[in-house]
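task queued by scheduler; priority normal; single chain, no ligands, no partner chains; default sampling; output format set to structure tokens
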Amino acid sequence: MFCRSILIAAFLPALVVPVYAQGPAPDDKRQRELVHMVRQDCGSCHGLTLQGGLGPALTPAALRGKPSEGLVATIVAGRPGTPMPPFRGLIEESEAAWVVERLLEGFPADGGPESAQLTAGAR
């Protein structure tokens, strides 16, 4: 019993650390693409200012208390039975984690379609 408790205590932190936290941050070009995607694509349902619309608000106040892992999963896998589509294939899990971190601190402004188009052509 004592040995099992030690093993659980030793490995529990590894189980709690989110998998997405291990991914590198997107490079500057990809960050601009992600900002544009969130402001335009996500904004079509969540409002261009992310204050809500068809979908709920994506402001720090609205997301406060929601687990980051669940928000990442929602971006990647969508929400079956709702209008929220999966973005798997368009965004990596580590990129979704970067987006969630930005949403929780206040999402940056969009640099405009030129910056996203320029970076898309460079990929």
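post-processing summary
- Residues 28-46 form the longest helix (19 residues).
- Confidence is low (pLDDT under 50) at residues 1-21.
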